[in-house]
Amino acid sequence: MKSTFLFLLIFVFGFSQSQIENIVEPEKIENSIQKKHLNQILFLDKVVSIDNLQESDFLKTMTFQEDKDFDVRIFLDNSLVNYLHQLDNSLTVDELLKKGNYQFNFYVDGKLIYTENLNSGAGKMEDKKVKTNFRIPFLNTKNEDSWGRYLWMRFFFANSGMDALDVGNHTLKIEIKPYLKTSTLKVGNVIASGEIQLIVPKKNVPEEQIAIQKIKPNSGWKVSDEKINQEKIRLLNQKIAENRFREITGIVVIKNEKLLLEEYFNGYGRDSLNDTRSVGKSFSSALMGIAIKDGHIKSENQTLKDFYDLKQFKNYSSKKDSVTLKSLLTMSSAFDGNDEDYNSAGNEENMYPTDNWVKFTLDLPMTENKIGKIWHYFTAGVVVTGDILDKSVPNGLKDYADKKLFQPLGITNYKWQFTPQNKPSLAGGLKMRALDFAKFGQLYKNNGTWNGKKVLDKNWIQKTFTNYFADNKESEGYGYLFWRKVYKVGNKNFESYQSSGNGGNKIIIIKEIPLVIVITAKAYNRPYAHSQVDKIVQEYLLPAVLKE
User: How far apart are CA 386 and CA 190, in angstroms?
Assistant: First the structure.
């Protein structure tokens, strides 16, 4: 027997019987606080259960401090799935929840700063069917893990929230709408909103943390005497000291092959070895180029069948035989591997627990994608390039890399991570000093020469710094295990190719000007890790170097 609620829907909206099957009756709204504040977002500076909430807990004004609790309560008059049903009444409950969620809009002082369509996987499925109220911990002194915490990080650190909420008094307003992404994006009306006055205090930072750090002797680089916009660097140092740019550990700028800027933070120094994660993938690209130059590998167009008996692995198909080294270097091999898709069989998180990463990769099935055409970030494929190098070069990859790359660059202090077979892992994790990572970047800027010696072929660098996926709207481009990124300063664009690793680690080679930038950081798995580094480069370092 249908409830009164459902019959009212039939009467008011004229839904058919089949459409009614897709409607879920939400929980009864019995809490007096919720009844009073339907369709509102309310702010708190402490964690309070809904049963213990009192009117006095809700704040109109608060002093914003990042080390204090900042909670919000959302009171709705229906459950999410029913809001989504109003956007498309042809979909089942499960289909609605797979394709939709809440959209959050953050306004500061009346200006829209950030909009996010919350990932459909955020929140519990059952709650989204029936719940009409929920709590979001934006900041939590107990480091509570939730999608709300990461939503706040994306707004505040990655999308200009911290700039909008600078020192002073501000109005923060949040609006929530339902959204549904099918063939098009459908967004409903506002279902909850609220605002609070935030007082953002000034942080007292000692002058020594703001001052530009003097370059000490014995860096291994000639020191530049070129001028730099010091005020830009001081402002950058202040934001790092205020923890508004987070977990940055080092910044090195090389201009015209000379050391222009060398700064360290958060307990790191010149001799610190930085775990740069996937920055190490670019070293696979370099070593492949060196091995081809030396004749140990014929070319990047060689295929997997030249190195493995692929019929010995699971899911064999003739398509596997045709996978080229180039397709592994450009992450377009058509293996069923995508690190950005948790449901992908070849996701790197599925690889690490296994006892043989190469076997894991070669056991994977192939997709219907054409080899070399569709890009997916695929760490396991880079592991295979390392294994191919290890079996192709004299005395193995570790010895070869030392003799052919690190020794010529004068790099002696570094640490590999290793695969279960005790081979250097080109998946990432190569630890090195920031100044030595800069040498690697400068090698590319020098078209493959170092101190007059040819280490890497110029043509290989040209191939490496080619965007093979110009039609991919989700990325600015990708070469041979290097990312393409364009920075804009004023009305000028500056194209770069860069090594990039989890945490915000970068080796950036600017193509138009003689500039190499290294940034090391340890904001691992933080949603703002890369965006804050891009902001540092675009809004501080490039303008400082260009004196704009």
Answer: 52
Say if CB 176 and CB 107 are below 8 A apart: no
- Name the maximum alpha-carbon separation found in the chain: 85
Q: Kindly write down the DSSP assignment for every residue of 261-296, as one continuous string.
A: EEEE-TT--TTPPEE-GGGGHHHHHHHHHHHHHTTS
For residue 481, the SS3 value is: coil
What pLDDT digit, counting tens, does each position of 129-152 carry? Answer: 999 999 999 999 998 889 999 999
Instruction: State pLDDT tens for residues 57-95.
Output: 999 999 999 899 999 999 999 999 999 999 999 999 999
Cα gap 96→81, rounded to integer Å = 7
- Helices 379-392, 281-293: inter-axial angle, 10-degree rounding: 30
3-state secondary structure at position 496: strand
The tens digit of pLDDT for each residue in 455-475 reads 999 999 999 999 999 988 878
Token pair 């909206």 is at which residue?
A: 13
**Encoding tokens for residue 230?**
């010091």
Residue 105: helix, strand or coil by DSSP?
A: strand
Closest CA to 248 of 233, 260, 259: 233
> Rounded CA gap, 380 and 435, in Å?
28
116 touches 54 (CB < 8 A): no
Instruction: For residue 456, give every residue at least 6 positions away whose Cβ sits within 8 Å of its Cβ, in sequence order, or none.
Output: 286, 289, 290, 293, 443, 444, 448
Tell me the residue type at 97: L
- Crossing angle for the helix pair 281-293 and 434-445, nearest 10 degrees? 50
Residue with tokens 């929530």: 176
Specify the pLDDT at position 325.
98
> Would you state the structure tokens that stand for residue 46, as one six-digit string?
């402490």
DSSP 425-481: -TTS--EE-HHHHHHHHHHHHTTTEETTEE-S-HHHHHHHT--S-TT-TTSS-B-SS
Averaged pLDDT, 219-244: 96
How confident is the model over 251-286, as pLDDT tens digits?
999 999 999 999 999 999 999 999 999 999 999 999
- CB of 219 closer than 8 Å to CB of 257: no
Residue bearing tokens 């309070």: 48
CA distance 296 to 308: 16
- Three-state SS at 63: strand
Is 50 exceeded by the pLDDT of residue 10?
no
DSSP character at residue 416: -
Q: Which of 541, 444, 450 is nearest to 498 (CA)?
A: 444
Separation CA 458–CA 464 (nearest Å)? 10
What pLDDT was estimated at residue 22?
60
**pTM for this predicted structure:** 0.90
Closest CA to 518 of 194, 204, 261, 148: 261
Tokens representing 416? 């590999």
Using alpha carbons, select from 412, 415, 411, 417 the residue that is nearest to residue 439. Answer: 411
Helix, coil or strand: residue 239: helix
Q: Which of 399, 406, 402 is nearest to 450 (CA)?
A: 406
